[in-house]
Structure formats: structure tokens, C-alpha cells
From TrEMBL:
Its main location: endoplasmic reticulum. Gene3D superfamilies: Membrane associated eicosanoid/glutathione metabolism-like domain (1.20.120.550). This is Microsomal glutathione S-transferase 1. It is found in: Endoplasmic reticulum membrane; Mitochondrion outer membrane. Homotrimer; The trimer binds only one molecule of glutathione. Conjugation of reduced glutathione to a wide number of exogenous and endogenous hydrophobic electrophiles. It comes from Drosophila willistoni.
Length: 152
């Protein structure tokens, strides 16, 4: 049996990969706030009266460019946060290094692609759906493995 100290250690390539991709996705998710702010300034769409840059501007909540970025950000929060939890728990199941590292890469790259095709350079479907399903499928697979390992 492998100890937790051996699994949650930077000498374990699975844990090291998990930490790397978690860091990348934290930076990516935080970047969504900057992308939202950029869209707000670009379109002069502000949700609070104190943020208005001119007395001629009005509070506005429905700019399609701002709302697209906000939806992409919300989608990150709905999908990346579960990966943070299940990815760490999956590491504790002592999975195959190749499979675990591949799953972490799939989630990380798919979430980056999802943002690019949804909020940066809008690409028609199925680009967004495919990137979402790739990350979602990998996360579900890890969750099932965690449940099966914990149950038996």
C-alpha cells in the first residue's frame, strides 16, 4: 500500500502534473476577470454607477460581449472547481501515471480551448461543445474511479 506522503509529493509525477495543471487553471480562471474588465472598458458597459467613466454613460447589464465572457467565466467556475477537488482525490487512488497525466492535460487544455472558442475568438459549434465534453468526460471518469476505489 502506498502512503499519502508518497502520493502527495513532488517526486510523484501524477501529483506534480496535478499541481501544474491546477496552477495553470487558477491563472486562467483569474484571467477571466481581466477579460471581463477589458470587455467592459471596450464596450463602455459598467454594472455600477460609480464605475461610469462619463456622466453620459448609463449602467448597463446586457452587452452581449461582456455577457459572453461572464458566461465563459461562470462555466469555468462550474467545471474547473470540481476538477480541483476530484483531481486531488484521483491522485490518492494511485492511478496509472500515463492515464492520470493525460486526463489532467485533457482537462487543462480543453478548458483553455473552451475559453478561446467561446469568449476570445468566437468559433461556431461544435468547437465549444467538444472542448466542454472533453474536460467534463475526463472529470467524470476521475470521479467514478474515486467512488469505485473508496467503495471497495
Amino acid at each position: 500500500m502506498t502512503s499519502i506522503e508518497q502520493l502527495l509529493n513532488f517526486s510523484n509525477p501524477i501529483f506534480k502534473s496535478y499541481v501544474f495543471w491546477t496552477g495553470v487553471l487558477v491563472i486562467k480562471t483569474l484571467g477571466m476577470s481581466l477579460l471581463t474588465a477589458s470587455q467592459r472598458f471596450k464596450t463602455k458597459t459598467f454594472a455600477n454607477p460609480e464605475d461610469l467613466m462619463s456622466p453620459k454613460l448609463k449602467v448597463k447589464f446586457d452587452d452581449p460581449n461582456v455577457e459572453r465572457v461572464r458566461r465563459a467565466h461562470r462555466n469555468d467556475l462550474e467545471n474547473i472547481l470540481p476538477f480541483f477537488i476530484i483531481g486531488l482525490l484521483y491522485t490518492l487512488t494511485n492511478p496509472s501515471a500515463f492515464l492520470a497525466i493525460t486526463l489532467f492535460r485533457v482537462v487543462g487544455i480543453a478548458r483553455i480551448v473552451h475559453t478561446l472558442v467561446y469568449a476570445v475568438v468566437v468559433v461556431p459549434q461544435p468547437a465549444r461543445a467538444l472542448s466542454w465534453f472533453a474536460a467534463y468526460g475526463a472529470t467524470i471518469y476521475m470521479a467514478v474511479q474515486v467512488v469505485l476505489t473508496a467503495a471497495f
